[in-house]
Design brief:
With about 200 residues, the protein is an alpha/beta fold. It folds into two domains: about 90 residues, no CATH class; about 60 residues, Dihydrofolate Reductase, subunit A. It is about 20% helix and about 25% strand. It has five helices and ten strands. The strands form two sheets. The protein has an eight-stranded mixed β-sheet with strand order 5-4-3-6-1-7-10-9, sandwiched between helices. Helix 3 links the parallel strand 3 and strand 4.
């Protein structure tokens, strides 16, 4: 069955999306291909500035939790967000990235530490990679899932988002489609899921 069955189509703007999200505590936000692949050893294999704009607007002013590899692939703290890097490396040093209050980054070594550091944030967004999504999957109350209209060629280093679409644990309640255009390599659909109460 199509996962959009019985879902309401929203031509919503980001402020409306944020109103819905503010009812939720931990949100997984991700972009994946048709098979749930989110990255390869070479990084993210698509260029979607419009989805990045959506990501920025959605997460701005909130806490973002990510793994070390994800943080290093970004190459800097995300501005106007509480950046929390979750790593097992006890010696991981982020001092050189702390250039100001708008680009602060802190390190956590357990999921519990990461959540404590995020305390007080309106929303806690989990932004990858694969192991970090797995670690917070059962704690999350919502998923913002960008499905990219492409298929990555599977390889040993392909990273996948946890499978969830055909389970009853999640309900699709809104989606918004975007065509491929001069800015975006592929068409994509942003889907909002929540756990049924």
């Amino acid at each position: 069955m199509n996962d959009a069955h019985n879902a309401k189509y929203y031509t919503m703007n980001d402020s409306l999306c944020r109103t819905e999200q503010n009812k939720m505590a931990i949100c997984l936000i991700v972009a994946a291909d048709k098979n749930g692949a989110i990255a390869t050893g070479d990084g993210i294999p698509w260029h979607l500035p419009s989805d990045l704009d959506h990501f920025k607007k959605t997460t701005k002013g909130n806490a973002v939790i990510m793994g070390r590899k994800t943080f290093e692939s970004i190459g800097r703290p995300l501005p106007d967000r509480v950046n929390i890097v979750l790593t097992k490396n006890k010696d991981y040093d982020v001092t050189r990235w702390n250039t100001g209050p708008s680009e602060a980054v802190v390190v956590a070594h357990t999921t519990e530490q990461a959540l404590i550091l995020a305390h007080g944030s309106p929303m806690i967004f989990i932004i990858g990679g694969g192991e970090i999504y797995e670690a917070f999957f059962e704690m999350a109350s919502s998923i913002i899932y960008t499905e990219v209209d492409t298929e990555i060629e599977a390889a040993d280093d392909t990273v996948y988002f946890p499978y969830f679409k055909d389970t009853q644990a999640w309900k699709l309640y809104a989606f918004k489609s975007h065509r491929a255009d001069a800015r975006n390599d592929h068409a994509f659909t942003i889907k909002w899921y929540s756990r049924p109460s």
